[in-house]
Design a protein that fits this description.
With about 400 residues, this protein is mostly helical. Helix content is about 85%, strand content about 0%.
Length: about 400
Amino acid sequence: MEVKWNKKYNTIAIYALLVFFSSIVFYLIASQVNVFKLQVFSYLSVFTPIIIGFVFAYLFNFILEFYEKRLLHKINKSRTKRIIGVILTYLTVLFIVFLFLKFIFPQLLESLIGLVNEIPNYVKDVSIKVAYFADKLEIDPNYNEIIFEKWNEFVTFIIQFATDLIPKIGNMTKSIVSSIWNIVLGMIVSIYLLMDKERFLALNKKITYGVLPKKGADRAIELVHRGDNIFGKFLSGKILDSIIVGILMFIILFIFKMPYAHLVAFIVGLTNIIPFFGPLIGAIPSFFIILFESPSMALWFLVIVSVVQQIDGNIIGPKILGDSLGISAFWILFSLLVSGKIFGFIGLIIGVPLFVFIYSIIKDIIENQLERKNLPIDTDYYRSDGDDD
């Protein structure tokens, strides 16, 4: 007997099955996110040199473009211009690495070792002062006991952190050194990518148009350009902005003869890469580092870091970054919490531009749907101010 299939219900059934299986896959990934991450990273480790090469090429591309547009624009032969530009780019990168290893890294290591060695003395002095003020203020014995209990917990945490700090730095250095071959291979890959970046882009474009329908390929290429515009401007601008903030902090701290100026400036500059919360994340540990040495200087540090962040937020940042985010503080907080939980420190750096990219796609979809329904796309049209008149 011949069975008559209804195409409409077949389509509905297929979509229902796809949604069902997608939901199962999503649930399995969400419930075993750590296992999933380990599996993904184990597979990606095979392509580590290539991934490093792509990252290097992407980050160094803005240096190459600077040289080609500003210094080498009078050279007519494009191949010659590219070769000279790539050489200047990697000489610049190597020079920056040399300066860091020669002048900054030894000072950072010396400051860290000195800080770790002095922490027991700092804790002892502060404990004596805490006990002195507790007796002088005649605090209720019950509250006094709670204060000392919390203080002892804090002291234990600080000592444990200081004890583990140097071994952790040693393990980090060891892992970097053990990965030096992958880094070297990544540098070589990045050179090839930058030398023929137009050809690689054309090849990817060709494959996209060959695989996808023209409308879908146009959309995919437009999204790639949009993502490159968001990530490229944000990352390159934020890195440059953070370097300027770090140098400015070091100069001011050195003038004011602050303790551990190299270490504090490095922490503030590094955490400044993180949007929104970066200055706060860097200021808190730096404050306590200086507080152990001098409470008065720690207070001055808060004033200095506040002034520097105002200068960065109102002058330096807008000049370099412009309005590269275009989203509210709530969405920045949301993206940092989610991406930081999933990807750690890297997530704190790339989480915001990634969210901006996803946000822009969703915004396009919603606005296209509104236009089809002949509805306004301006968000203010849908606001309700509670006025019934």
